[in-house]
Write a structure and sequence with these properties.
This protein is α/β, with parallel strands linked by helices. The protein has a single domain, classed as Glycerol-3-phosphate (1)-acyltransferase (3-Layer(aba) Sandwich). It contains 12 helices and 9 strands. The protein has helices spanning 12-16, 18-23, 26-35, 38-47, 55-64, 93-106, 116-119, 135-151, 180-188, 203-214, 226-231, 257-270; strands at residues 67-71, 82-86, 110-115, 128-131, 155-158, 166-168, 171-173, 191-197, 237-242. The strands form 2 sheets. Strands 1-9-8-2-5-3-4 form a 7-stranded mixed β-sheet, with helices on both faces.
């Protein structure tokens, strides 16, 4: 059954769920609505020529005013299924940019994991696998949902850090990478493609992340501002670099899976060289 344009509009009450929506006072909901840019996103949907599906990646980037340059696509064999592994500097733009690029290269055969906030962008839900922003729940979701993702015929991109880069002692740093993509590359015989994307979040976001860590909170307050961060990237150009695929057979017992993950993370960092941007990991 075909859906109308209005079916894709965001509704804050639906995002919050019936229980949370009922419990939160009106001023809190209005605050969340502004932080999540509900009106802006709905305006984009109403103005978009392609208001759903892969075409909306470009519509969203054009609406916000984000552009990008691509390097290294000659490294890709279009007949192979890969696991693309990317640094995680921002939390929103990289998912839209990667979606736009993959649409141009692979059509609609790709899957990108996304936090729950980005996943609620209805026009793009078919391409996103939701990953919980609550750390305790994320491991269970990866175990079940990600397995189906790797078994599919789609190209798969993951952010092994699991969280956005943080500012530590004045420097923006990518968080340690998890080993999941290494074990899955070996299990499903998918070669791994390192991907680097430029950019970083604002000082305000880094402050909120620092405050959350200092207070010992399980939830990063900065996550509420990730859509703000997305819209604040208006007018910026990003550089995306694809490295040479690493054969899945590379991941032998000469290193532990965590060591292999860190090895690929260092390969991604090297891809930032000569991209004309300030290093961000």
């Amino acid at each position: 059954m075909s859906r109308n344009r209005t079916d894709y509009l965001l509704d804050l009450n639906e995002i919050l769920g019936p229980e949370m929506s009922r419990r939160l006072p009106g001023f809190v909901k209005r605050f969340l609505g502004r932080r999540l840019h509900i009106k802006d996103i709905n305006d984009c949907i109403m103005k978009a020529e392609h208001y759903a599906g892969a075409g909306f990646f470009d519509e969203a980037l054009d609406y916000i005013g984000i552009t990008y340059r691509i390097r290294g696509t000659e490294n890709l064999d279009l007949s192979r299924k890969y696991i693309f592994v990317c640094n995680h500097p921002l939390g929103g733009p990289e998912a839209l940019i990667i979606g736009s690029i993959f649409r141009k290269i692979y059509g609609e055969g790709f899957i990108v994991p996304a936090n729950q906030i980005l996943y609620n962008m209805k026009p793009l839900q078919e391409f996103f696998v939701p990953v919980s922003i609550v750390p305790g729940k994320q491991k269970k979701e990866i175990g079940e949902t990600f397995a189906r993702m790797f078994e599919s015929d789609s190209q798969v991109l993951v952010f092994p850090a699991g969280v956005c880069a943080k500012q530590i002692k004045g420097k923006v740093r990518e968080m340690p990478w998890k080993k999941m993509f290494v074990t899955q590359a070996r299990k499903y015989e998918r070669d791994v493609v390192p991907v680097h994307i430029s950019g970083h979040n604002s000082k305000w976001y880094f402050f909120l992340s620092w405050l959350s860590r200092t207070l010992g909170l399980k939830f990063n307050i900065g996550m509420l501002y990730l859509v703000d961060e997305l819209f604040n990237q208006a007018g910026k150009e990003f550089v995306i670099t694809f490295g040479k695929p690493v054969p899945h057979a590379t991941f032998d017992k000469s290193k532990t899976d965590l060591q292999w993950a860190d090895h690929i993370k260092n390969m991604v960092k090297l891809l930032s060289e000569d991209n004309g941007c300030t290093p961000n990991m």
